[in-house]
Amino acid sequence: MQNEQKNSGTFEVFARNPKYVDINEQNVKDWLDIMVKHGTLRVSCVLDIASGTGTMVQSFQRKMPATWQPKWICADASEDVIQQAKDNVGQSSSQMRFIRSEADKLSSELNVSEVIDVAVCGNAIHYMTPESQLDTMKGIKNILRPGGWFCFNTTFYGNSRPEETMAFYKEKVKVAMQILKDKGVVRDKDKHKPEASSFLPIEHYTDTARNSGFDIIAVKETLVETDLQFWLDICGYYDYASGALHGFGKEDAADALQASVKRIFEKYAVGLENKFIPRLWLSVVARSSE
Q1: What does the pLDDT average to over 95-113?
Q2: Methyltransferase domain spans which residues (predicted)?
Q3: Which residue among 21, 79, 154, 204 is buried most deeply as judged by most CB within 10 Å?
Q4: Which pTM was predicted?
């Protein structure tokens, strides 16, 4: 049975979605394998940028070598999200430090004496403007040790939606708009699209990393079979909903998108038994130039 609970609007529900957890753990395992392959024998400190509710920390803890046990610095712009991360990963641990900071201002918030081996940005890079992405990556480069690693992933980029799935996305929005119209909900046409509505090409991300002083070590796209619950969970997240239906109130947008997805999912889903919409996830591994 699909989740029928009232939307909280936060990322936490989606962060627990099995498909979301699985792809992040796949990406993290790939990152760790690459680090080890390139001679990284130990990691002392990991910086989690736009850390959210702690998904990447938990994925690393499950996948990294047991002997590593690094310290973590978790940074996010939202105090409420930081508190949720503390609850999820353990705020009392001496290995965990939480700071409130925008991603592009993070380098000025950290003690320059801290040696950071790895920086990760899980499923958040697409929320930044291109200018902020460049500032963020340059800041990361400045605080990483020479030869340190920067790993990030996203499912909001140019290739993420296969051509054969575009009709699903168009009708999802069309039906949701009709639902809102039928309810008499008025759109604020002066509101601008969030950055997550911009699907930038892979080359944008790799070029930005290179221009920030990184060498690109690996680029990978992974197909994720997103099921109905995946879409109900992500559509219930207010930031996603406001990106898909910009100009409407977040709660109205989320409710309408979830109702829309329930109506049209079977029409566009593929697969014999377990129906899904194919979606691609981008993973990039970069290394600070020595």
Answers
A1: 83
A2: 46-148
A3: 154
A4: 0.91
